[in-house]
TrEMBL record:
Protein name: STAS domain-containing protein
Domain STAS: 165-248
SUPFAM superfamilies hit by this protein: GAF domain-like (SSF55781), SpoIIaa-like (SSF52091)
Pfam families attached to this UniProt entry: GAF_2, STAS
Length: 284
């Protein structure tokens, strides 16, 4: 299962804070002991934040393999929800290992997405006792999930804000380094293209070294940006040298024939890039 969010759990502080404030209302409204948000990973579901009113059922950090989780069935449901009065008797959940492990009965969970509809995880409630959930209850929890989707977007924006600048460092006449960090979305891609081409033209740059070591890959947008950037630099007479390619970036690039066809030199590190140009680093 593809992981749409490479941000660490610690990068969703706004979501944690907001969900905890909402949990008090949710457990009261639905008459349950526990409410929590679980984040989808590559192979597991992990509880990002939780509230256990009278007794601890599911702590923060609790993780379940995706295939054996309730969340998988929520995602697969056409209505993006799953609920039952007793998970021990419900056909979908009764044979899962997590059911006797948690020791619960009543359960309701809904899909949690960002504002673009990309699945982030789930918003769920559970209780030791049987709980009959009405359609009104389901819609209520979905409305809470809709509110949290905007908080997810806020956390992503805050994460990206730290990388909105385009750090271009001139190191000698005709040579500059572009360091790319964080997530490359549409806004950043446009800013990078504009800034790099303007700098290269104004400073009469012959070589642009692009360092990818701090890049965060979420989708295939960056390889498309790299193709356009390198081709544009070639048109204005600048040669591109790419360094700091991480294993993650390499896996994305392998799937793109355009990347493989680029006439760009790739090296392991900055020292290799400078040596390619004709400079050598020496200790004093």
């Amino acid at each position: 299962m593809a992981n749409e969010y490479n941000l660490n759990s610690t990068d969703f502080q706004s979501l944690k804070t907001a969900s905890k404030k909402m949990f008090d209302m949710i457990v009261t409204r639905l008459n349950v002991n526990t409410a929590y948000v679980a984040k989808r990973g590559e192979k597991e579901m992990t509880v990002l934040s939780s509230l256990n009113k009278d007794e601890e059922i599911i702590p923060e950090g609790y993780s379940v393999e995706y295939g054996g989780s309730y969340c998988r069935h929520i995602f697969n449901n056409v209505n993006n929800e799953m609920h039952t009065a007793d998970v021990n008797h419900y056909e979908i959940t009764r044979n899962l290992d997590v059911t006797p492990e948690l020791g619960i009965k009543g359960y309701l969970g809904v899909t949690l997405t960002d504002t673009e509809g990309t699945i982030f995880g789930t918003l769920c409630v559970m209780d030791r006792e049987e709980r009959e959930f009405s359609e009104e209850d389901v819609e209520y929890l979905k409305s809470m999930a809709d509110l949290l989707s905007h908080i997810i977007e806020l956390d992503k924006t805050k994460f990206n804000m730290g990388f909105l600048s385009v750090p271009i460092l001139p190191i000698t006449n005709g040579v500059s380094i572009l360091t790319l960090q964080g997530v490359i979305d549409d806004q950043r891609a446009n800013k990078i293209m504009e800034s790099v081409l303007q700098h290269t033209s104004e400073k009469q740059i012959d070589y642009i070294i692009i360092d990818l070591s701090g890049l965060v890959i979420i989708d295939d947008l960056f390889p498309n940006l790299l193709v356009k950037l390198v081709q544009s630099l070639q048109l204005i007479g600048a040669e591109t040298i790419i360094t700091g390619i991480t294993p993650e970036a390499a896996l994305h690039n392998i799937s793109s024939q355009h990347i493989q066809d680029l006439k760009a030199k790739t090296v392991h590190n900055l020292e290799g890039a400078l040596e390619y140009i004709g400079f050598h680093l020496q200790e004093k």
